Amino acid sequence: MGILIKNGYVIDIEENSVKKRDVLIEGELIKKIEENINFKEHEIIDATGLYILPGLVDMHAHFREPGYEYKETIKTGSLAAASGGYTTVFIMPNTKPCIDNVQNLIRLKNIIDRDSIINVYPIGAVSIGQKGKKLTDIKELYKNGVYGISDDGQPIMSEVLMEEAMKKANKIGIPIMTHSEDKEIVGNGCINKGKVSKELGISGISRDAENEMIKRDLKLAKRLNLKLHVCHVSTKEAINMIREAKKQGVHVTCEVTPHHFSITEDVIRDKGTIGKVNPPLRTKEDIVEIIKGLKDGTIDAIATDHAPHSKEDKELDIQKAPFGISGIEIAFSLAVTYLIKKEHLDIVDIVKLMSYNPSKIMRIDKGMIKEGSIADIAIVDLNNQYVVTESNMYSKGKNTPFLGTKLSGTVNYTIASGNIVYRR
Ligand SMILES: NC(=O)N[C@@H](CC(=O)O)C(=O)O
Ligand SMILES: [Zn+2]
Ligand SMILES: [Zn+2]
């Protein structure tokens, strides 16, 4: 028995089209996409008024296993992802131990094989222990299944090491994804340095931390003529630099998180530590530039940077609490609420940013709904609304400043490799 999705709007990125179609799934494949398909013996999903999207692809998330299972596991992370419409997630290596050698990688892959209900693909560390001193064996990691390398969570302070890593990653042909924040400039800062940090007397992080690091890495990418992917850009200056670099032909791609395009440092006043994240929540002017960057293609992707933490961790004093916002299950709704409903972007743009482009950057054959391809699909309603509550979250990490916020856009079904892995 297969699945027949009736009367939904199918998005085709390459044709830039939205068409009313039926989609037939048999086994793990999309068998047929036609105007009218009838098959009584299949499970029928009525998608009238709904959009049928290629499953979302998150190029940047933290699932915490091994080592921090109290924050998230592969099982809970993949469930949360599925409920957010994601069928593919790339997970960062900052676990305990971190994914800096083949043995740790294989152990992780075994957990993924056992527990994940969607595609979860590992990213390997750039340096041993993510300490920024000595490179990992990038080639061996690649041969054993990493899709990219990153020391995310940690900047690569040594320019010499960064150059070496970029050369290696590019030679192999996998992305190097940077957490661009100069540690020295960050110092003991907790939130954006500006009016809110001043008002609340909380140590600030100067925007130069991000800007200076991105400047350095863009220079490197330009001089070496190599590819670079910048994680979670958040400042208007960084976006301007990346826009300029792209104009000059530098091979740079970048992502933005949903929290950085929807809220500002101002939420810290009411919500405190829950809004503590790297890079920090910024200002209205930064959001204006982020939206401009999303529209003009300077920003290639929306990535969640899903960073679940426990209540105990986040209830610590703001100086001691860890950085990070949990968000993989509401990312799509944030895009609908803050980008589509505010008429900055349309659903085709969102699919490009949340599925098609990340697939291209991570070099996987996904992000498109076409006959003969693996049935990774999200069926969504752009008009349905709901309030974010802890009890409707699958992630162990309830650390989101959006608790209590009413959002538009629901994921009604998620289908991964032909299996319904989530239904609302
Ligand atoms: N974004 C965060 O604030 N935290 C991330 C690390 C990271 O993405 O830098 C985490 O692992 O918790
Ligand atoms: Zn990071
Ligand atoms: Zn991250």
Automatic annotation (TrEMBL):
Sample GO molecular function, one term: dihydroorotase activity
GO cellular component, one term: cytoplasm
InterPro entries registered for this protein in UniProt: DHOase, DHOase/Allantoinase_Hydrolase, DHOase_cat, Dihydroorotase_CS, Metal-dep_hydrolase_composite, Metal_Hydrolase
GO biological process, one term: purine nucleobase catabolic process
Protein's pathway: Pyrimidine metabolism; UMP biosynthesis via de novo pathway; (S)-dihydroorotate from bicarbonate: step 3/3
Nucleotide-binding keyword on record: no
Positions with a binding annotation for Zn(2+) 1: 60, 62, 152, 305
Residues given in the record as Zn(2+) 2 binding sites: 152, 179, 232
Chemical reaction(s) catalysed: (S)-dihydroorotate + H2O = N-carbamoyl-L-aspartate + H(+)
Group of enzyme by EC: hydrolase
EC number: 3.5.2.3
All copies of domain Dihydroorotase catalytic, residue ranges: 51-237
Note accompanying the cofactor annotation: Binds 2 Zn(2+) ions per subunit.
Binding site for substrate: 62-64, 94, 278, 309, 323-324
Function in brief: Catalyzes the reversible cyclization of carbamoyl aspartate to dihydroorotate.
Family note: Belongs to the metallo-dependent hydrolases superfamily. DHOase family. Class I DHOase subfamily.
The name this protein goes by in its record: Dihydroorotase
Record organism: Caldisalinibacter kiritimatiensis
Taxonomy of the source species: Bacteria, Bacillati, Bacillota, Tissierellia, Tissierellales
